[in-house]
Amino acid sequence: MNALRGIAPDLDLLAAGETAEDEALRRAADDARARAVGDDVHLRGLIEFSNHCARGCLYCGLRAPNGAVRRYRMPRPAVLRAARTAAALGCGTAVLQSGEDPALNVAELAGTVREIRRETGLAVTLSPGELPERDLAALREAGAERYLLKIETSNAALFRRLRPGCDPETRLACLETARRLGYQVGSGSMVGLPGQTAEDLRRDIETLRGLDLDMASVGPFIPCEGTPLADGANVPSAETRVRATLRMMALLRIACPELMMPATTALATLDPGARREGLRWGANVIMPNMGDPDFKRDYRIYPGKADTDAGPEAAWRRAVGAIESLGRRAGRGPGHSPRRRGEEA
Ligand code: 5AD
Ligand code: SF4
Q1: Which residue has the least CA distance to atom 8 on ligand 2?
Q2: DSSP-H helix ranges across the chain
Q3: What's the gap in Å between 302 CA and the centre of ligand 1?
Q4: Hey, which of 63, 160, 167, 229 would you mutate to test ligand 2's pocket, going by the most ligand atoms within 8 Å of its Cβ?
Q5: Which of the listed residues 48, 51, 57, 96 should we mutate to test ligand 2's pocket, taking the one with most ligand atoms within 8 A of CB?
Q6: 63-68 long-range Cβ contacts below 8 angstroms, 24+ apart
Q7: From the CB of 221, is ligand 1 less than 6 Å away?
Q8: CATH homologous superfamily for 16-326?
Q9: From the CB of 159, is ligand 1 less than 6 Å away?
Q10: Local structure of 31: helix, strand or coil
Q11: Residue 297, C-beta contacts closer than 8 angstroms, at least 6 positions apart
Q12: Confidence (pTM)
């Protein structure tokens, strides 16, 4: 952490309001981003293909015990339609995300991946939760190139409390397996969880750096109705969570300059201007939602999710608007991590 201490020696990540160090931190991250990955902002078309989940994470609206969720699985033609839209709008990647669907049909998903690759040429990122090696291998074989699995928090006690039945070791092993199978791997964490300290957040950065990632995202925690954390007790204010998230993004960018890092939807949900702000604090990716509003409306991991009622074109337009307002431009091609540039056509 020495490099980070040099920039912000006494940085309190959870400080309320703008601190004396914030602007220097932002500038250092923005410079690191420009030098390591340039000005292009890559668009990843997000497709939330199933909101079924077997888990009971205390923070998440999709948790299995939440009976208020209308559950769906997008049929393959609907996923393909969303992927085609993503390609037509200039996204280089389709991100297939879901809960930990107990009935996930891996052969079916592999077929969908194959079809997306064949028909659109998009790079495919998978984010369906923890998977056993044979499933990861089958999906890699089908053409998926990237795998996302967030550590959520590096505080093991907090992780176990918030994710009953899960353990951090299994999660890390899953990321390791994915890397061994040739995936570009991504992870990340949430900011402002109840009981999470500024020291926890510092450790998140160190942990993420230690994972030698291709991609990482940090987003603010947003209390969600239908969950045990709905009342927001012990959660910093929305403004503080947004600031803390931006500081975390900056530190991550400085710690790992070549990361592909999104300005997240959670950030935009707490503050509509914050996605653009994220691009000034180290981010170089936006993930506009390509789902049909009829499905994505029910992907309520947290309330008020940005872009939920708009179609793909509106989400894309907002993303490009934010990018161009900063004098940057939407990247072309798959937007692989620079660590894998050799693979880029
Ligand atoms: N607030 C913010 N992010 C959340 N996630 C889940 N629930 C919430 C919430 N209430 C994020 C987690 C998870 C992904 C599916 O969404 O980081 O990995
Ligand atoms: Fe399921 Fe992921 Fe939500 Fe946990 S965070 S309940 S695994 S969708």
Answers
A1: 99
A2: 2-7, 22-37, 76-88, 106-120, 133-141, 156-162, 168-180, 198-210, 238-255, 265-270, 274-280, 293-296, 312-325
A3: 7
A4: 63
A5: 57
A6: 63/226, 63/227, 66/226, 66/227, 68/225, 68/226
A7: yes
A8: Aldolase class I (3.20.20.70)
A9: no
A10: helix
A11: 308, 309
A12: 0.96
User: pLDDT tens digits, residue range 136-183?
Assistant: 999 999 999 999 999 999 999 999 999 999 999 999 999 999 999 999
Amino acid identity for residue 147 in this structure: Y
| DSSP SS3 for 128 | coil
- The HSE-up count of residue 319 (CA atoms within 13 Å, CB side) is 34
Distance 272 CA to ligand 2 centre (A): 24
DSSP state at residue 136? H
| Tokens standing for residue 215 | 């991609």
Both tokens of residue 197?
A: 């300290």
Question: Which tokens belong to 329?
Answer: 């431009």
Distance (Å) from CA 149 to ligand 1 centroid? 11
Which segments of the chain have a pLDDT < 70?
A: 1-10, 341-345
Q: Coil, helix or strand for 215? A: strand
Protein residues with CB under 6 Å of any ligand 2 atom: 53, 55, 57, 60, 62-63, 99-100, 129, 301
Structure tokens given for 26: 């932002």
Q: Which atom of ligand 1 is nearest to the CA of 188?
A: 17
Token pair 């056509």 is found at: 345
